[in-house]
Amino acid sequence: MRKSIDRIGRAAVYIFFGVYVIAALYLLFFMRISMWKYLTYSEYFRYNTNFIPFRTITEFAGLYRRNDKVYGDISLVNIWGNLAVFFPAGIFFPAIWKKQRRFCTFALTAATVIIAVELLQFLTMRGSCDIDDFILNFCGAVIGFSLTRLKIVRRLTFVGSE
Questions:
Q1: Into how many domains does the chain fold?
Q2: 97 in helix, strand or coil?
Q3: What is the DSSP letter of 66?
Q4: Residues linked to residue 129 through DSSP beta bridges, in sequence order
Q5: Is residue 124 part of a domain?
Q6: Residue 48 and residue 42: Cα distance in Å, rounded?
Q7: CA–CA distances in Å: residue 119 to residues 8, 53, 72, 104, 136
Q8: Which residues form the VanZ-like domain (predicted)?
Q9: Digitized pLDDT (tens) for each residue of the chain, 162 residues in all
């Protein structure tokens, strides 16, 4: 009886992970229009990249104004959305792969996946290639990972694998 419950639980984790991956791909790539028709790569690079840590975050948080821009609600969506999009990865990676339960391994994997997403967004000209996106995505993943230390989360996600 316990084994069948564990199998059902593991299957549910994999199904939810699949749904998360599809939703993340949609949000990160397919929800956005490509700038292929409108910009050259050099123009796109100039307008849609940021390699200065915390520049976009401070602009969006209203701590710094650039060219007197006021961002409003898009600021909250950007900051919280970037935190939220990789939050589930922090829970799913350790739930699915035992090696991901060590923080160093998880951190390296999360960083690699996030960098790959940022590069793909640049290559496909969808979204922006921003170090602040990386910082917020990584923080969201680490927050999710830290929740896996809670007994209730472990019970729900590490079904049959402990």
A1: 1
A2: coil
A3: S
A4: 49
A5: yes
A6: 10
A7: 36, 17, 27, 22, 16
A8: 17-150
A9: 556 667 788 899 999 999 999 999 999 999 888 887 788 888 988 888 999 999 888 877 765 555 555 555 566 788 899 999 999 999 999 999 999 999 999 999 999 999 999 999 998 888 888 999 999 999 999 999 999 999 888 887 875 455
Would you say residue 87 lies in a domain? yes
Contacts of residues 152-159 at CB distance under 8 Å and 24 or more positions apart, as own/partner, are 153/91, 156/9, 157/13, 157/91, 157/92, 157/94, 157/95, 158/94, 158/95, 159/5, 159/6, 159/9, 159/10, 159/12, 159/13
Residue among 84, 101, 113 nearest 157 (CA):
101
Question: Which residue's structure tokens are 């390296």?
Answer: 108
Domain that holds residue 38: 2-157
Residue 162 maps to a domain: no
- Find the DSSP H helices in 26-102: 41-48, 55-60, 73-85, 87-96
Decide if 152 is inside a domain: yes
Q: Which two tokens stand for residue 142?
A: 């680490």
Helix axes 103-123, 41-48, angle to 10 degrees: 130
